């Protein structure tokens, strides 16, 4: 594997030769080293993207379609190889990583088609024998800053529509998970024209240089609220467009008309998927009082069934957290919750059976109040707090009582309740009886402090296109409203 930067379809070291280590969170061992890129390397990558943009934006739609579709074909053909790379550096179970490869293949297929579907619209003319067209054009060079929890999926959510819209791209992976993107580029992207898709590895300074570069016209970022604020401020200095998918503290409402067993299974999966390291993880559980005890007991039983272990093993449900930093955050959140009076029902510690690895047991709390820290900030770990509510109205009020607005979930057989909650809760995605399921043809993104802009769907394509109005008169002719003016004679406009 080429553990280097990918610039203009070439594998190159950082300009100063510096590197940093990538760790396996299961073994706590260094896997490999990648370039620690600096501003000079960013400049080189952006220049390659800028130089290739004119040819790429003018490429025929059928050729564009075939090139992007081939990315999907190659990704599927080498799914296990790429998935293993994700597992090694993230700790995510192999089965979840295989799902990730299928998802990115579907995304590239989707945008390969809708990217050539339409480029604008015709507007009714102001005057006879004329026409107004609105065309949607590529911005130019797009900088994509990608998180570690779904390193390939969230990269694809950005790069596929950006390329389909006619832009060229520079990707900056997370320093935790750069190797899987490198392997994917090697396998699935070697047929793409030179310079349209580039990648540089590095830390925060590398990302800052990409944001501040005068030739990047759009910055697409997924990550924390605090980092998103900094990116928005840097981009604003150049009036640069941003697409920001930020944190969440997503609620799920459990109504009293559900099958408690199924609702508990779904809640446990939505809370512990990828060890809770999902932006739309279920992090606040609001359950109706009449079924609260039964539901809580069922969730605890489901949590105890979750099988921790080697993420490469086919029967592992949950691997380690992605880094020692994430483990430390989980431990601090649990300690804080207990000090605030929440009752620990299971988990709350590291498992004894592993000598190494950043493992943390699936954790469930009840006797939770909305004032507690974990009900107000993103958790990003395998921790489920359960709070009793009197009715749907209280659940809606508490769900909205948050700075975040990424996603929301409900379990109910009553569609009036479901759609009342969907109408009244401020969130970019709302799931009814099916937590966390995405659809590449439908938009994804947050409200409030969870960000702005959308990924996926036609909306995701439009994030990387800007509209231009073109007015056409069928014939060159003198206009009645030109000079000279004569107010007494009247004037047509």
Overall description:
The chain is of the alpha/beta class and 493 residues long. The chain folds into 2 domains: 5-245 and 463-471, Aldehyde Dehydrogenase, Chain A, domain 1; 251-432, Aldehyde Dehydrogenase, Chain A, domain 2 (3-Layer(aba) Sandwich), CATH 3.40.309. The chain is built from 14 helices and 22 strands. It has helices at 39-57, 61-77, 79-90, 94-114, 153-164, 179-188, 204-212, 225-236, 260-272, 289-305, 324-339, 392-400, 415-424, 457-462; strands spanning 5-7, 10-12, 19-24, 29-35, 120-123, 130-138, 141-145, 168-172, 197-199, 216-222, 241-245, 251-254, 284-288, 343-346, 363-366, 383-389, 404-405, 407-411, 429-432, 447-448, 451-452, 465-473. The strands form 6 sheets. A 7-stranded mixed β-sheet has the order 14-15-16-13-12-18-19, sandwiched between helices. A 6-stranded mixed β-sheet has the order 9-8-7-10-11-21, sandwiched between helices. Strand 5 (120-123) and strand 6 (130-138) form a beta hairpin. Helix 3 (79-90) runs antiparallel to helix 6 (179-188) and helix 9 packs across helix 10. 52% of the residues are buried.
How would you write the strand order of the largest sheet?
14-15-16-13-12-18-19
The biggest beta sheet is recorded as: 7 strands, mixed
Hey, roughly how much beta strand do the residues contain? 15-25%
Assign a percent range to the helix content.
25-40%
CATH C-level class of the largest domain: Alpha Beta
Question: What's the number of domains?
Answer: 2
Query: In terms of structural class, how would the helical and strand content be classed?
Result: alpha/beta
Distance between the ends: 66 Å
* Number of separate helices: 14
Rg is 25 Å
């Amino acid at each position: 594997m080429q553990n280097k930067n990918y610039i203009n379809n070439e594998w190159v070291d950082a300009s100063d030769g510096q590197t940093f280590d990538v760790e396996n969170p299961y073994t706590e061992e260094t896997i490999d080293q990648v370039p620690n890129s600096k501003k000079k390397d960013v400049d080189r990558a952006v220049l390659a993207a800028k130089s290739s943009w004119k040819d790429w934006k003018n490429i025929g739609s059928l050729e564009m379609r075939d090139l992007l579709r081939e990315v999907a074909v190659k990704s599927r053909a080498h799914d296990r190889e790429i998935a293993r790379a994700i597992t090694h550096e993230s700790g995510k179970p192999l089965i979840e990583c295989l799902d990730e490869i299928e998802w990115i293949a579907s995304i590239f297929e989707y945008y390969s088609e809708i990217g050539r579907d339409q480029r604008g619209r015709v507007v009714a003319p102001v005057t006879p024998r004329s026409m107004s067209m609105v065309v949607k054009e590529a911005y130019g060079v797009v900088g994509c800053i990608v998180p570690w929890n779904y390193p390939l999926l969230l990269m694809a959510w950005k790069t596929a529509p950006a390329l389909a819209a006619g832009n060229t791209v520079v990707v900056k992976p997370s320093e935790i998970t750069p190797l899987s993107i490198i392997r994917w580029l090697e396998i699935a992207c070697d047929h793409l024209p030179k310079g349209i898709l580039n990648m540089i590895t590095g830390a925060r300074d590398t990302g800052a240089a990409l944001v501040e570069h005068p030739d990047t016209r759009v910055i697409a970022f997924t990550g924390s609220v605090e980092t998103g604020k900094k990116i928005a401020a840097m981009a604003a200095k150049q009036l640069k467009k941003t697409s920001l998918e930020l944190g969440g503290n997503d609620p799920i409402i459990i109504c009293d008309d559900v099958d408690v067993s199924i609702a508990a299974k779904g809640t446990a999966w939505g809370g512990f998927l990828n060890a809770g390291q999902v932006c739309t993880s279920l992090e606040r559980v609001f359950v109706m009082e009449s079924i609260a005890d039964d539901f809580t007991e069922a969730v605890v039983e489901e949590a105890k069934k979750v099988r921790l272990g080697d993420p490469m093993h086919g029967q592992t449900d949950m691997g380690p957290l992605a880094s020692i930093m994430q483990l430390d955050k989980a431990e601090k959140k649990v300690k804080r919750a207990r000090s605030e009076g929440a009752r620990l029902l299971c988990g709350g510690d590291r498992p004894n059976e592993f000598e190494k690895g950043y493992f943390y047991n699936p954790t469930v709390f009840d006797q939770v109040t909305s004032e507690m820290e974990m009900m107000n900030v993103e958790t990003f770990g395998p921790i489920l707090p359960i709070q009793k509510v009197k009715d749907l109205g209280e659940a809606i009020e508490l769900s909205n009582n948050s700075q975040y607005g990424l996603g929301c979930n409900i379990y109910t057989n009553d569609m009036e309740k479901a759609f009342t909650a969907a109408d009244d809760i401020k969130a970019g995605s709302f799931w009814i009886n099916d937590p966390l399921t995405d659809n590449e043809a439908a938009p994804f993104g947050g409200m409030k402090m969870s960000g702005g802009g959308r990924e996926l769907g036609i909306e995701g394509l439009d994030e990387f296109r800007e509209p231009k109005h073109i007015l056409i008169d069928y014939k060159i002719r003198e206009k009645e409203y030109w000079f000279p003016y004569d107010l007494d004679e009247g004037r047509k406009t």
